[in-house]
Amino acid sequence: MDAVSRPAAHLIDGSLYVFRAWHSMPDEFHDADGHPVNAVHGFTRFLCELLERVRPEHIAVAFDASLTTSFRNAIYPAYKANRELPPPDLEYQFVLCREVAQALGIPVLIDHTYEADDLIGSALWSLRGLGFRSVIVSADKDFGQLLGDDDEQWDYARGTRWGPAGVHERLGVHPQQVADYLALCGDAVDNIPGVPGIGAKTAAALLAHFGNLDALLERVDEVSFLRLRGAASCAQKLREHGEAARLYRRLTRIALDAPVPTDAEALRRQRVAADGMDALCERLRFGPLTRTRLKALLG
């Protein structure tokens, strides 16, 4: 079955778009109890626009449950320790954003042990076995490691899409090398230091030559003879920090065994009653335009 005829599932990195709405929407929106709901309004507009444009049959939104409880924190306590915890107002809005998605019939994926990336990766992996291709709606570079031949990543805000070839254009490595690449050069966003002295270009060059992290570390003595600036120093750093790099790869590799539905029907957008949406619109004090869009989408 070719890519065009394969059904597509849209897998949304929900937390990213809630944070974007939180930072971009003015603080003038409040719910019936007086709580700020600017992120909820922005996230709802994003969902409405996506559903209106795509009309997907199979879709899910994945959320991070916490910054401190994933299996990666147990492996490496400093993981994401550089990030501030969401303020209570935003935590409150995350719950409401999940309610909006569910009221639109969109399956929600969330787990305290696995992050949104893992839930999306595991759903993609299951769907691929059922003949689906996936569209990952996110700007996060980590997702590049998941893209198969027919999959796409969609940076919705910038209106750009790319497949496996686009991963190489952006990072200089192939999808199957992304986790190794991030383990080598680090990922400041997640507080993963990488191997000292190895930047993005060097990491890409090393993986282009050796293929993967394990081969690189097994043949580390060859690094000194490569045409790389500071090759001898690079080889020494790899000897000193090789085991750390393997640890970092356990952090950068997206899990494919998170607890997600394994049948396509569970990830199909559901028909839901309008009365639940009506009550939610009242609580969130949505304006007439948003209410009209939401009701049309339920219809």
Automatic annotation (TrEMBL):
It comes from the Bacteria. Keywords: DNA-binding, Exonuclease, Hydrolase, Nuclease. It holds the Pfam family 5_3_exonuc. Signal peptide: none annotated. SUPFAM superfamilies: 5' to 3' exonuclease, C-terminal subdomain, PIN domain-like. GO terms for molecular function: exonuclease activity. Residues 5-270 form the 5'-3' exonuclease domain. InterPro entries: 5-3_exonucl_a-hlix_arch_N, 5-3_exonuclease, 5-3_exonuclease_C_sf, DNA_polI_H3TH, FEN, HhH2, PIN-like_dom_sf. This is 5'-3' exonuclease H3TH domain-containing protein. It comes from Dyella halodurans. The lineage of its organism: Bacteria, Pseudomonadati, Pseudomonadota, Gammaproteobacteria, Lysobacterales.
